[in-house]
Amino acid sequence: MTPIDARTLIRARASMALPTTDQRRSLLVTVLFLASSFAFAITAGFGLGTWLLLHATIGVPLPEATWSALVQVHGHAQLVGFAGLLVMGIAHRIFPRFRGADEPTTREVVLAYGLVAGGLLLRPAQIWTDLPARDALLMASGAAELAGMLVYARLAIRTLAGGTNAHRADELFIGAGAVFGVIGAMWGLVALAPTLTGGATLDPDPDRAHIAALLLGFVSAHVIGVSLRVAPAFIAAPPASDRVIVGAVIAWAAGVTLATLGEPLGPVVLLGTALVLVRVIGPFGRSVAVRDVPAPARVVRLAFRGAYAWLVAGIALLAAGAIPGMPLGSEVAGRHAIALGFLTQIVFGVGSRLIPAVTGGRAPSVAAVRAAIVLANVAAALRVVFELVGPNVTGAAIALAASGPVALAALSVFGMAAAHSVRSALRSAIA
Ligand code: HEM
């Protein structure tokens, strides 16, 4: 029988550790968040998004509803459902560890979940203008999401302010993210106004502010804060200086606020800050590893590199979108460079480490995570390039259309790998 080398043995032992008591206690709540995030993503998120794209590019028929209403339901399900519930589901487990603090009570966490998920489930009422009590349903949807974001922000900020560990500057990004979640939900409520009097679509300006506050504020600030914290351990990057991070968080918050107010300077400030952040997070920089970086860490580094390259490209496109004469697709291309290239990819990379860490499950297969990352990059590239080229150029419509199914494949491959990890945790929790 071939002797097993030390590293294989360590890996095998690590992947079979039984969940600790606190992991068991909040395992079900964590699984609820992860499964709900995936369910919103595969349906109204990536699913509806792909249908919309196939309609716009190759004329696949859409159900009896307005294009804009369906687009708005898609965008909202992605930002609050896919991204929002994932951020909340991981946050309530890892922030207490960052701080050396007690975990928030299950009741508070489930309250935040119930309000946000409940609000989301009511949101498709926007599609059917003749639905009975539609205005009350939409009002309840917007109010519930705002209440949920407030409960989440309160528990996140309380956790960040508490605990016994020394404070670190990256916590400021996380705190800013929690605040922008509330600001985004407030704009979301304002954007609903026309639909409360029978209108089919949201008010475009508050809707744009809602998207900017959630995508660039709530989601991106959380991802950047966690990236700054885990990059040294996950990708062997040198730790960033607190002084630079403090400057970056002030600039980031200012840039998001300006972008939320529709100021063209907003994305420009964010672009400069993103370039500094890429440097201090260090995915392209010198590694501090004393020996070869193992395969799981290499795949996380691949995700960091792709994600932060797309963040810079996406913000540059948003900035360019404000320049007269720039291709019409710049804003949509910029948004999806950030949504598919940055957010989705970093979820696959960092998620491959955090999901087993918070559930006690086996690590997802490195090959599956790598495949999902490659597919996410292909989907983002097809979307961004051909959104800018425009569907009227020969072959561009097919290429643009293809980005939807490729992104869906990426989500499915990662979803299955993560499900294996969660299932192993549930199995050992009930064993
Ligand atoms: C399979 C992947 C995806 C596809 C095929 C897709 C497709 C689309 C399409 C066709 C539009 C309308 C663009 C237009 O106005 O011409 C759109 C808008 C949007 N998408 Fe996606 N998308 C995808 C993933 C995502 C992700 C991951 C996010 C965010 C996390 C996202 C957020 C948005 C937002 C915020 C809008 C604008 C909604 C509005 O105007 O209210 N999308 N998407």
Defining key terms:
mainly alpha, binds protoporphyrin IX containing FE
Instruction: Estimate the helix proportion, in percent.
Output: over 70%
Q: Provide mean pLDDT, rounded.
A: 92
Give the bound compounds: protoporphyrin IX containing FE
Give the helices and strands as they follow along the chain. HHHHHHHHHHHHH
Instruction: Summarize the main sheet.
Output: none
State the end-to-end CA separation. Answer: 30 Å
Number of strands: 0
Strand content: under 5%
By secondary-structure content and strand pairing, the structural class works out as mainly alpha
Cα-atom Rg, whole angstroms? 21 Å
Q: Residue ranges: pLDDT <50 for 5 or more in a row?
A: 12-16
CATH superfamily: Cytochrome c oxidase-like, subunit I domain
The CATH architecture term is: Up-down Bundle
Total domain modules = 1
Examine the coordinates and then state which fold CATH places here, giving the name of the CATH topology.
Cytochrome C Oxidase, Chain A
SS element count, helices: 13
Overall, the morphology is globular
Under CATH at level 1, the class stands as Mainly Alpha
